């Protein structure tokens, strides 16, 4: 199963040769990872990773959801229960169960990421199977005990130039401070994610709001609340943040008068906002955040369209982020209009849009990003961070929005070892796309080299102001 | 026009060679046909087919709709009028009219199925045209008079291991009994299709309901009605059924309390349910059927999203199933939630979802099937049972749901001769897809052989419990 | 950057060779341009084009929107402000600004059209860049002063057999009359576009309506209004029109009783129709127009689904058609039903449907056009008039609707020089599509030759009754 040097390149030999040349030019570029979910404590504490199951299986909802869909229980994969009830804790047992079902991943990006990590990080070129499970477990277990496998060593080995984490607005960013205080050279920056203090329907919202106001010393008024955000954004910026991130169920925005917004906030504060008002409030806050971005220069990311926790009994047992978030039809044309009416023509603002509804690419997102100076398109996200997904992204956006209204690649992952695998996949798929344009003479090869570098490195760095 | 051995394979020679190898390994596998609309009387009575027009044209809405769209009248193709008014009855005249318009089918699967049947069943390698119409008619007419062209002989010649028909819940399954009583070796099983006794808006519903209760000796209560279904399901199961099928306008499900469901049933029974209540009742019955499947093990199929009889004047003249059913936008994420909340986590239940809205594959269906243990994805259906449709199905589902949350191929046809043609097309297109994954090193060729067998045979057999 | 003879053909050599043969057979066919937005005064007056910026940049919203999306101001591209405030007027300055940003168009059809025009019209094979800007400007400026670059000379050089313009229902068609009076051989026909007198929400509607009635001498009644349309349609037909065109926000149609329609018209006339009534009126008028087409034989085009003037501040500054129209989700199945119920089964009527929502192709449009005798599918439109867009159009419509329910190509442009470039692109992409069907043996090459001619020429000519 050793990784083939031509993987993910077009099969037609002439086109493959072009793709190979383009890829060779960008394969070694540093990784700019402007959006993801790695744990900042890894960089601060530089502890070894615990075991193969914790490294590859238990926390990875891509891995556990596939097995769950085929009847494997999450507790048997070591996923903790909210009740505290016992779950499987033997990493080898979990690993064997995963190995037994590994054939399910044929044709998926999870399989490609996993095998890229096995080979490039651990030198393993055997496929995982019930027969090889123990050998692979032993090799990985032995390797992660070595200093070369610590987070900071891997950071260098992976060629990471800069990585952004995603952090609650209430986070003290102590791990980020510790990284900076340590004198280590790695660049790790936070991202301001205020959902917990913006979404009235999030669990614990009232307490979160109280804490936000307390930690900034602001009054419980609309003006105070906005100031509190400004203060926290500044706090994040002082620690290197260049972006904010907003995960809402829809892309709805609002642009109420400040008086109406204040009245709505008062209801939200009092816990009297109904579902429609909560939704309006979230929409209003996207526009407020965009206005703050006009002032402080933070790039704004909007990740809409996921129906979170679709499976209530699974949620009751295991909590969020266990593979039960399902994409929904997502409108942008009407939803974003209030925000765009307010700030869409500002070329100094950057709002990066993501989608889980691929139909929006050619119909809405490329036309919007190909017009509004403030808009850019984030890369293919989540279920679409895959060879076919990335290909469709380019095929449905480039003709209308070009390359320069896109922002390169985001790995968006909490799986540290998959970072180089994901960037490598994106570079290969983008080079394959460019090679096809060269092969049918839509681009010259010379300019394709320039574009390959932009897609792999330049666009992300510039768009995220890194 | 002789069938090319490499048809539907990728053009790139290396990839084509892989596809050819994969296809050779599965081309001769038996046909498992777990969902379709052949007439059980064919197997019971084993009579010769009447004439070439009746075999290929008049009953085939794929064929007649294309000619109708270009101005040909259905009565001139022999389609019976509800009024009893005369229609064309000379099969040769109908055949010639079809031949005159046969160029319309260029690029369609209908053309490929038709020519596959001509060559493999009748040894005809001439293209149908006004010039060849009579010769072909004569050859087919002569052939269908021979014993080799009787349904049972073709069953063996086609290599059918098992075929499922689709039968009204009220059907006495006499033809199925006759098949079994005859001692013939062919395996023909019924499928429980209760739409006529579940959908309050179907014509004749009140009488159907009465008949259902009468034939099961159940009371006209909610409990009696559910028991009647249970009894009929058992009756079908005794005759070999392994599945139920549900064709609703939407995928809406409900999970009312039993008291509310009983009250709703009372309204339905009294003929007082309005459109919204009828819709709720259909939704409730999907969940009830899923619960019964948990008990009796019948696999449940849901075929939603067709706007039936979109053309009222055509419907008035010719009735249903005449090519005027049009797909609609279909939601699954919200629609299925009540059913999934109730039974979605049961790994012993199998609910197979179909769609006519391809946008749902990557956005909703693959994410749902890649999570819920009870869900699997049916193959590309109806308008999408085609080379491009099947390719898009794999490209938009595999990366998220893998291969093992899909269920192989359904021919879904009432055109007996097209069965081997359709399975052959599906095997070719799936092998072409796998070959592309091998060619760009997403799969090893060795595992692609295993998957090709699963897609052609194994998955259908296991998913439908055949 | 010289145009490669194999551009837009499949990379696989065997398939490319087929595409090349097909293309050679159709490359030289005359251009039938049945729908577009060229200015009839060009043909009437045959004046030279003013300057390179006016020819290629300032009036072309494909060009200006891309630069605007990257922060360039429209006034700096010479786009006039409604306020009359000064904008850039030096064509060379505008040209240089465009050159500086020309790299943005990599991968877009705009780039391909532009370079096709440079080479085939001006003999320029250098890529536009800041370095080459002045040289190219000078060459183009010199060329457009020559008689060979006048509109009528280009008409012949482009091989245009017939071109349709799009004209307001209120237009006196004086330019069309002048063309005919001039004795010039070029065939230029008008198209009846009544939006300004059909849409109560269009600015100036009341005055438009008054003018319509005045110019036809009809009474301000529903019957008079319909007669006025009939008179204007006849006026257009006398000047060569074979088609009407309707650009609505949605595809909604209505089929009210004539009494209800008259009452609705009275409200519209009085300026008392609210938004819902205005929408119903537009819907009713589509059905009325279809009925008039049954009488007078004009082909009806429906172009729905664009959210016009999405950017209000840009609209306030610069007016409509400045790149701020954004596609929307568009339903056809329910929206068209009233019209189809009324006239859909008439094989003598031709209604050509367009979409900006590609999801409708396989789900709704191909199934509708593959059934209703009155319906045909227009080519990939606007943002989708591109290599990938045209490929997706064929891949998602052919299997269900075939080729003969489509109508060839529309260039739909106001950019005169892009007409041959656009037809050339469409011919190449269609030949590439056909070549793929030949390469995998879905079509014989011989019949592909016939189809290539139909797609390039025959279908448009027949569908538009030219």
From TrEMBL, chains A, B, C:
<dbReference type="InterPro" id="IPR032466">
    <property type="entry name" value="Metal_Hydrolase"/>
</dbReference>
<keyword id="KW-0413">Isomerase</keyword>
<dbReference type="Pfam" id="PF02614">
    <property type="entry name" value="UxaC"/>
</dbReference>
<protein>
    <recommendedName>
        <fullName>Uronate isomerase</fullName>
        <ecNumber>5.3.1.12</ecNumber>
    </recommendedName>
</protein>
<dbReference type="GO" id="GO:0008880">
    <property type="term" value="F:glucuronate isomerase activity"/>
</dbReference>
<dbReference type="InterPro" id="IPR003766">
    <property type="entry name" value="Uronate_isomerase"/>
</dbReference>
<dbReference type="GO" id="GO:0042840">
    <property type="term" value="P:D-glucuronate catabolic process"/>
</dbReference>
<comment type="pathway">
    <text>Carbohydrate metabolism; pentose and glucuronate interconversion.</text>
</comment>
<comment type="similarity">
    <text>Belongs to the metallo-dependent hydrolases superfamily. Uronate isomerase family.</text>
</comment>
<dbReference type="GO" id="GO:0019698">
    <property type="term" value="P:D-galacturonate catabolic process"/>
</dbReference>
């Amino acid at each position: 199963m050793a990784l083939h040097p031509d993987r993910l390149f077009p099969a037609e030999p002439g086109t493959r040769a072009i793709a190979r040349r383009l890829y060779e030019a960008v394969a070694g570029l540093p990784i700019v990872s402007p959006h993801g979910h790695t744990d900042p404590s890894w960089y601060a504490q530089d502890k070894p990773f615990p075991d193969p199951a914790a490294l590859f299986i238990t926390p990875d909802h891509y891995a556990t959801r596939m097995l769950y869909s085929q009847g494997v229980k999450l507790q048997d994969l070591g996923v903790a229960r909210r009740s505290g009830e016992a779950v499987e804790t033997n990493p080898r047992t979990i690993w064997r169960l995963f190995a037994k079902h590994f054939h399910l991943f044929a044709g998926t990006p999870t399989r490609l990421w996993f095998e890229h990590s096995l080979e490039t990080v651990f030198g393993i070129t055997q496929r995982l199977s019930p027969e090889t499970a123990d050998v692979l477990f032993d090799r990985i277990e032995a390797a992660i005990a070595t200093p070369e496998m610590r987070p900071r060593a891997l950071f260098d080995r992976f060629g990471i130039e800069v990585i952004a984490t995603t952090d609650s607005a209430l986070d003290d960013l102590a791990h980020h401070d510790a990284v900076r205080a340590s004198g280590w050279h790695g660049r790790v920056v936070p991202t301001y994610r205020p959902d917990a203090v913006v979404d009235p329907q999030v669990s614990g919202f009232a307490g979160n709001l109280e804490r936000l106001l307390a930690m900034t010393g602001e009054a419980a008024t609309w003006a105070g609340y906005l100031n509190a955000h400004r203060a926290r954004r500044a706090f994040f910026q002082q620690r290197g943040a260049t972006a904010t991130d907003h995960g809402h169920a829809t892309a709805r925005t609002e642009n109420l008068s400040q008086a109406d917004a204040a009245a709505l906030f008062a209801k939200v504060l009092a816990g009297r906002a109904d579902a429609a008002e909560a939704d309006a409030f979230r929409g209003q806050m996207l526009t407020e955040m965009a206005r703050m971005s006009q002032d402080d220069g933070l790039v704004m990311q909007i990740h809409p369209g996921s129906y979170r926790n679709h499976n209530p009994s699974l949620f009751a047992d295991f909590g969020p982020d266990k593979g039960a978030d399902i994409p929904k039809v997502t409108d942008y044309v009407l939803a974003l209009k209030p925000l765009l009416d307010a700030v869409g023509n500002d070329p100094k603002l950057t709002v990066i849009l993501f989608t889980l509804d691929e139909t929006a690419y050619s119909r809405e997102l490329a036309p919007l990003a190909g017009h509004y100076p403030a808009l850019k398109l984030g890369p293919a996200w989540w279920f679409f961070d895959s060879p076919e997904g990335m290909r469709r992204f380019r095929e449905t956006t480039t003709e209308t929005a070009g390359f320069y209204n896109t922002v390169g690649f985001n790995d968006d992952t909490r799986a540290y070892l998959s970072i180089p695998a994901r960037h490598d996949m994106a570079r290969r798929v983008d080079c394959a796309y460019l090679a096809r344009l060269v092969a049918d003479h839509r681009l010259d090869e010379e300019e394709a080299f320039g574009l390959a570098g932009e897609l792999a490195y330049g666009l992300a760095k510039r768009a995220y102001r890194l």
